[in-house]
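Researcher: Last one for today. Full complex below.
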Amino acid sequence: MTTADVPFPAGAADRPDERAATGELVHKALVKWHFTLGVFFMMTSMTAGFLVSLNFLGAYPFEDIPWLSASRLRFLHTNEIAYGFLVNCFVGAMYYAVPRLTGRPVFSKGLGWIIFFVWQFIVLATSVGQLLGFAQAVEWGETPTGFRPGTFELNYIPIDALIAVGALLVALQFLTPLARSLGKRMYVTGWYLTAGIVWLILTYVMGNTLPEWTMPGASGAATVGLFIHDLVGLFVTPMGWGLMYFFVPIILRAPVWSHALSVIGFWALAFFYPLNGVHHFLLSSIPMSVQYGAVISTMAVEIVVTTVIVNFFGTMWGRGHALRSNLPIRWFYTGMILYFITCLQCAFHTSLTLQKTIHFTDWVPGHAHLVMLGVFAFWIIGIITWLWPRLTGNEWYSRRLNHWQYWLTMLGLLIMFTDLLAAGVVHGWMLDALAPWMDIVDAMKPFWHVRTFSGGMILLGTALWSWNLWKTARTPKPYDYRVDLVDAEAA
Amino acid sequence: MDRFLGIVLVAGLGCFVLAFVLSGLYPWMLNEGSAPEATLDELAEDVSVEFKDLKERWPEGFRQAYGAEEALNLQELVGVPEGDARRTASDAAWRTAYRKALQDGRDAYVGEGCWHCHSQYVRPVANEDTRFGPVSRWEQDNNALQRPVLWGTRRVGPDLTYEGTLRSNDWHAAHFWDPRVVSPGTVMPAYRWFFRDGFQVRRRIDPDIASRTGLDPQTSYPVPGVYDTRAEAEQAMARVAAETPENLAGERERLFIEEGRGLNDRGLSILAYIQWLGTWQPQPVEGGA
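Model: Here's the assembly. Have a good evening.
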């Protein structure tokens, strides 16, 4: 396939005269407000994570307050990242990308505001419910069912049902323009976003109903594993890659290296990713045949990942200096390198040999932070960093602060990742060596101090950025489109 | 297949359903689908000694949490003949209370995030069967209290699959109030909202014993029962005094009332649940994988 055949995302050029044409197409206020709330929940979630880490140093400030207990704040840390930060930011980015990609507006602006308010209510009500002690025992889906277990008596707002409705509304909003471009050749971003929205609904409903209401014990655990993995692999990952396939060519002003490879990447993700679910509970009482299947398909995912990475580095070929001059591109490609590392790690640590040592240790949170922060949050930060001056029409309050954020967050994450990996190996070996339990806990304490320090770096970087976003929006200073075009055209 | 409907049908639905069939439905068909799930009633069939002990230690909190006035402990059953209606009523009341305690305790275990730091899942590797107990089998988790399962996510604290009956109720109560008192160096948070404040009757030790042993004569120990008001505590003190035999009349003088605290319904339930863990064993299933 020659480059001439490669579909190029619509709205690629970002010249002022084209803004007028897309002005009505993109509802900028919705993009801006979803990003704003997304960054707000990113801050609250990270603050919660930082506070929980203090508990491990014996320095937790709110030990006597039930609704600020470290163990309940931990729900808030993971759930606000998923439903507050990731969903808000992905939806915001889709309000920009989908109309430009399809050349058609989303279903309705009014529905957009309804979704916006309903979704913020869901996220806040989830956090309040969890702080009051109504969590559900599904990892990463601890959103309250609202029912007393095994009955249909309500004891809290039925969040699970509300999220399913919210996801359906999101589907109506974005699948409408995507479906209306039926018959036209669809660019790969459209594939990823279409499938990601459909998968979000299916995954959420499956994970929050079957293990709770029908499937007990080990097969319920298999379904919970499937839910955790599908939420990452079938919602967050397709959204992330779909948006990368949209924004990277636009910013680099270059077509994607190979459309064929992007198609292979999509179908291999669709096939192999969901089969990985059970690898969250290896060496368990789930039948071994199912466990082996999950291990093998996890290794197959590495092939998918390699095709996608090769494609993006092919796109970058000859334009490498953009990594230095263009901050969004640097965020994107740092995320891609970390994505490759994280998936390579996955292919190895799901082997039963490594599971023996690292399961139930800090290795796993180390891995999870690399994926959620190092890959998807980095991509979202890159997208917002590129779009924010275009949305507000204001030049950055400080471009230097954005660079501070990059280095603080990136280095903080690498320190945290290395630290937690090492902690996990020590934990696993001490467990195997039958060391007394309190000796294991004592051995973890130095690692936990480093974790709090690195978490502080990440929190500080994010706080600087949030402040910068705020000041940029509030300080009128016309944004000169040529500043970023210089970067891109030099490429 | 690069059309909208193709993606929705083949990728969106097809691949998703295939994965669910292979990694969710298939294990269910092999195991749980072939054996009935144990109901809460079956799990609460044998009321544990530890649960009955909760009533003796925290009678007032127990009454507030479960009612269960007819549930009699061993002492109260002395003199009640076999086959008496009171025994049958007592057994039924115990089971009802135990059933409620297990369900509420599990909900608290979930809501407090215990399962984020404690696993319920012993693996056949890393000497875990030496450290924690027999390797987990799927039959053990095929019950109403494992919906969804509480296998856990991380082991900051030890596995709790077989935690029931390993430690006393007193140990657990002290541990919830301040984990570092009984387990120095632990990072487990305190759970002080498992306790309720009130008034309790205490008894000072015999001054003769104090002088002979060198203990502080002001040393005292509590009579079980924490009451919401001072008036109730005074009534309780009068009852204790009335039950004190004549030859120990001096004891009555050493009773006094002080502010105290005991487990509340949340604390009692989670303790009942923890003491239950590993005590229920399923019937082996023919042909299970």
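The mean pLDDT of chain B is 91. The longest helix of chain B spans residues 4-30.
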